[in-house]
Amino acid sequence: MLEAIQLKRSWLTQRLANRFPPWSRVRRRAQSVGQMVLGPVAQELEDLYWWENYSLGNYLLNTSDSDPIGDHYKLSLPPTFDWRTREDADAVVYLAPTSVRGRLSGGTWVTLSQATRNSLEEFWFGAPDRITSSGETFTYQPVLSTTQISNLSTATLAAPAVPGKLFVTLSNNGSSMKNYRGIVNRSSILLQGVDIHGKTAKERIYFAFNGTRATKLAWSQIDSVSTDYVDDVAFLKVDWLTVGQADYMDPMGLHISKTREKFRFLSLGTQTFGSTLKQSTFAAIDLITVQEGDDSKEAVYEMELLDSAGSNISATSMCLWPHRKWVVVSSPTKLHFYIPEVELPDRSLLAERDTEVVLQIEPDREWSFNGDTVTFNYLMTRPFIRVLRTRWSVLKPSGSRVGLDPTGSEIAYSASGWVTNPLGTNFNRTGYGGTPFEYTLNETGTYVFYLESMIADSLNKSTENVVEQTDVMVIQSTSATAESSITLPVATGTTSFVGFDSWARPWVVSSTGVATRLSFHYDKYLADFNNKSIMVREDYDYVEVKA
Amino acid sequence: MASTKFSLFFSIENDDKYTGAPVYRTVRGDLDAHGDFLDLRRLDEESGYSYLKRLRSVIPLRAGSDQSGLIHGITRELGLDEKIGLEITPVASGSTHLAPAPHIEITATSLILYSEWYSADSYTIDSQVDIFDRGEGYLVGDLVNKIMESQYFVAELGSYMTGDEKSRGLFQGESTIVVEREFVPSASYFLLEHNDLVSGSVSFTEKTIFDDEKSTGSSVAVAGDYYIDYVNGAVTSFSQATGQGTCRYQYRDFPWRVRWSPITVYSLRDTDYRDKLFEHETMLDNSERDGLVTAEGSSVYSRLFELSTCLWGR
Lengths: 547, 314
Known about the structure:
The structure holds two protein chains of two kinds.
Chain A: H1 3-6, H2 12-17, H3 25-28, H4 33-59, E1 72-76, E2 85-87, E3 92-94, E4 99-103, E5 109-114, H5 120-125, E6 130-139, E7 144-148, E8 167-171, E9 177-180, E10 183-186, E11 188-195, E12 200-206, E13 211-214, E14 219-228, E15 235-239, E16 248-256, E17 261-271, E18 274-283, H6 287-291, E19 298-306, E20 317-320, E21 327-330, E22 334-338, E23 359-363, E24 367-368, E25 373-380, E26 385-395, E27 401-404, E28 410-411, E29 419-420, E30 427-428, E31 431-432, E32 437-440, E33 446-459, E34 462-477, E35 479-481, E36 484-487, E37 497-500, E38 506-509, E39 514-521, E40 524-528, E41 533-536, E42 542-546
Parallel strand pairs in A: 5-40, 19-35, 24-34
Antiparallel strand pairs in A: 1-41, 2-3, 4-5, 4-42, 6-39, 7-15, 8-13, 8-15, 9-10, 11-12, 11-14, 16-17, 17-18, 18-19, 20-21, 21-22, 22-36, 23-25, 25-32, 26-27, 26-29, 26-33, 27-28, 30-31, 33-34, 37-38, 38-39, 40-41
Chain B: E1 10-14, E2 17-20, E3 23-25, H1 30-38, H2 48-56, H3 67-77, E4 83-90, E5 92-93, E6 96-97, E7 103-106, E8 110-119, E9 122-130, H4 140-148, E10 153-157, E11 173-174, E12 176-183, E13 189-191, E14 203-204, E15 212-214, E16 225-229, E17 234-237, E18 246-252, E19 256-260, H5 271-276, E20 281-282, E21 288-289, H6 295-307
Parallel strand pairs in B: 15-16
Antiparallel strand pairs in B: 1-2, 4-10, 4-19, 5-6, 7-8, 7-11, 8-9, 12-18, 13-17, 14-18, 16-17, 20-21
């Protein structure tokens, strides 16, 4: 598993948690103790799921990864070379070399880092370290520029610069199911032309949603594009690069909510502080929704995008890297590599939470942005309880802890901050019927909310077993820090975009419309301690190893 | 490339520092397994992109013992690309062509444009361009210009051609395709699978139903009369066909897309090619290259000619 994924919440966690009853905290909260236990299991399962998908793809020639583990370079070290070692109580362990560097053909030395945990996955499937131009450039032109269907007959078609599968994007098409004379028909696009092998071919692509689909055939020329049961106001684009689309369906991830599982789409968003990565969902198993052609997507998460140094970025485009786990985002001068999952809260912040806490915090979200207003409610996990008094407080990212009164206004956090009989008779078996309060997060970072409560059993109208408990809820800025932010070798501009051709080779298109194929480089090594050798991925003239 | 560079360089400053040149290695992966299955090995240091592209072409572009099969196989084995070389279309005149019966043929040495072509014995040549020798049609770009000089045809380069490729690489063939056997439906009016048919090329097995071809549809009046709309490939007959019969015809495959490969395969039986076989050749710098074979070469040729049923010297 990639190191970068280990800090993220797997989408599979919720699938496991959904085996619990709807009222259980493990099902409702990502930071519940139950989900902390399920998390690592879900991560391993997700990893298996991903690799199974990857292997299945490679099993079929038409979906094979064009860059599977393969070519590399090996430096054999002489028998006299000794690794550094450390003597533990029970064994002698090898230590990683203090420095490894490689000389590029131009004479520049670059520092090589060891693949994390010396793992083959990090070595081959990790984010790149360096990007150069391959020298291959074209004037960028899509096969069919974004065209309204009513103007399709007069649109011009260009040959794809790189022959291969094409990416067909349909947008603004109202319903994907059209009722015509009593028969329900699905929207489709028909491509006709010449395939990559020079044979006349045609392919029909059906759309159940607004978005992008790849063709099954590889094309070298498109002679005509026609549509069936597509709205005249819809827009169509056919491209040889996966660029400029509104939504990317994530083929390797689902969105699993507390109630149902859906397809996941990723897109870029804009906030005052910079760009975000949005996840929205579309019915996957709710077939009625698809049948009715209701393709509206529902936003679920939005993540603030930070570069590898932790600063906000202004993204120009994003795309999914085929056969890899990375989402690639371009900014005017750099490419950034992200894992598109939300980060888990720091569990040490939950230390003060009582395990059997009865009166719990019920916020309307667990991830938020600076400037967002969160609504807080109460959840009682046991009947026949009387809440004698409560005290709300919050530890802000800046480090100050303040109390909150029942309206959400900040007060001093002190012993006098207790509110007596706060819930009155508003609690019944269906939940809290009183007024929730709102609180606005004005700082970036992690907020920790505390709800201290004094509760008592309320049987036979007598008050017994008075206990004091604390619930803790962490609400943090949803952000994704780039694993790697690399400067592009070519000038691009603010309307540039990044994309992959159907052979999974990266391209960047500048604001002036020049498409340049990029070469990703990996300055990483794997050390084979027993056989005294170093494996690298790049064709260095020389590699220098210091034990 | 690392495997070819000087790989014995090393320096040991002390026992814990070493500098050396890494050596290229590869590990077998899923692509190589596909390669075993399709009998196509990875070339030395070949990228996954190139290998995957070649693997995906094995089934659509079958290698075989015929001319195109050999070109497909050799091109792929060498890691080269086939493309559409050029696209030729007859000039239109209304719903039909300006030339009465356009036809194009590429032989080993020339491209021949016919304004009228009905059979191997009945034709009129519009123009002929030499594609073998350095000159008018040696490069595909020049060939396109030569074709554009014709009043009957227009040509354009394939999308991925620069025009500087040798025209010899164009696949030999003809723009008129023979359909040996197509079922005739049980109807008195039907469309054949193709249109733009060659006049006089259509023959039916049901001779009693298709006995007397008329020049207009309205002349079809008695049993045995039939009319063919050659432009649209539509047949009208007085009697209804049984559905058991077949027909044979020729159609023009326009726009004609001619494939191109850097590999050229010639047949020693091809008399056009044999004329050029030992010819002096003009090189790029206008120097002459002697086309005579060496002693070793002539022994190879004579062994090949032994296998070929040719009459030496015609």
